[in-house]
Amino acid sequence: MPPLKTKKSLTPLDALLAVLFVGMGLYLLYRVNIGLNYKWSWSTIPQYLFRYDPQQERWLPNLLMQGFFTTIRLSFWGTILATLLGTMMGLFRLSHRLFRRLVGGAYVELSRNLPPLVLIFLFYFFISDQIMPVLSVEDFFQARSESTKTILSFLFAPAEQFPTFLSALVTLAVFEGAYITEIVRAGIQSIEKGQWEVSSALGFSRKAQLRHIILPQAVQRILPPLAGQFISTIKDSAIVSVISIQELTFQGIELMSATYLTFEVWITITLLYLSLTLSLSLAIGRLEMYMKHRGAG
Fold first, then answer.
1. Residue 225 CB-density burial (10 A; 0-12 exposed, 13-18 middle, 19+ buried)
2. This prediction's pTM
3. Using CA atoms, how far apart are residues 110 and 86, in angstroms rounded to an integer?
4. Which residues of the chain fall below pLDDT 50?
5. How high is the pLDDT of residue 255?
């Protein structure tokens, strides 16, 4: 199929839509300035991004940037854990064993058919109250050397927030893993039946079929939707603010309650989230182009 030709000139409809968007923006600005009688104070925001510490004689991240970095840590580790869990459950969904199919199916159906907020509370309180004390996570952190504590604090969270952070991380991974399970399942099932039949005729076991024939092809089809799910993980990480994880949204709520700078705080938070998601979108776009050219070559 020949590629669609793109037209660079503006049509009257394009101009009309542009005028409508500009008009809506100006109206919202008018309502905020005149209708709500809002007093803007953008000069206050930078001090909540970074602050100067005279004792250390350097700039340090303040509330909003601390929350921003916590969001990055949650999203990064949550994505890795969710990918591992989703891949395992995706393979369970396609297993020849009934029990594994039931486990994979129950996990996906329970996760997708319950409100995310209910899942967050359910998993968080169970994990933090029952699992973390049994594993002695806090004692494990305190028993480490100072250098190890510094590394763990940088990669995850400070000592006082470490068990809570891990609980939220597992909760987020369980929630996102259900969607990755379906992406993996659909990717494997999209491989043509003939690939299975030919590899079986050549004497491959099921494990060898998956490892050498099916998965290498499925990965190319899985990657684009999987990358989209990674962006969703960044956005969904905001939901753990309801269990007092000090990520970006939580810090924004706290700051807004203290300063009443509603619009400045939330616009800043919006820009911080966009910087993450748009950067990842651009990286994903380049990855897709690379894989497309590699496949064509």
1. middle
2. 0.83
3. 14
4. 1
5. 94
* pLDDT on residue 226: 85
| pLDDT given for residue 162 in this prediction | 84
pLDDT digits (tens, 9 = 90+) for 38-79: 788 899 999 999 999 998 889 999 999 999 999 999 999 999
HEC secondary structure over the chain: CCCCCCCCCCCHHHHHHHHHHHHHHHHHHHHHHHHCCCCCCHHHCHHHHEEEECCCCEEEECHHHHHHHHHHHHHHHHHHHHHHHHHHHHHHHCCCCHHHHHHHHHHHHHHHCCCHHHHHHHHHHHHHHHHHHHHCHHHHHHCCCHHHHHHHHHHCCCHHHHHHHHHHHHHHHHHHHHHHHHHHHHHHHCCCHHHHHHHHHCCCCHHHHHHHHHHHHHHHHHHHHHHHHHHHHHHHHHHHHHHCCCCHHHHHHHHHHHHCCHHHHHHHHHHHHHHHHHHHHHHHHHHHHHHHHHHHC
